[in-house]
Amino acid sequence: MASIAISSGHGLKVRGASGYLDEVNEARRVVDRIHTLLTQAGVKCAKFHDDVSTSQSANLNAIVNWHNRQTRDYDISVHFNAYQTTSKPMGTETLYKSSAGNSLAIKLSPKIAAAGTFLDRGPKYRSDLAFLNGTAKPANLIEVCFVDSSVDANLYRQRFEQICIAIAETISGQQVTEPPPVEPPTEPPTEPPEISGDNRVEIVGEAQGDVTVYINGSRVSGHEDCEHVLDLQLTTRGDVVVTINGEEFHDYPAIVEPEPGEPEIPANQTNIICTVFGGKGDPNNSAYSPYDAITDKELGVALPWKFPSARPKVRVINRNNKQEAICTIRDLGPWLTDDDYWTTGKRPLAETCYKNQTPLPRGPNKGKIPNGAGIDVTPAVAKALGFSGKANVDWDFIEENVA
Question: Whole-model pTM above 0.90?
Answer without folding.
Answer: no
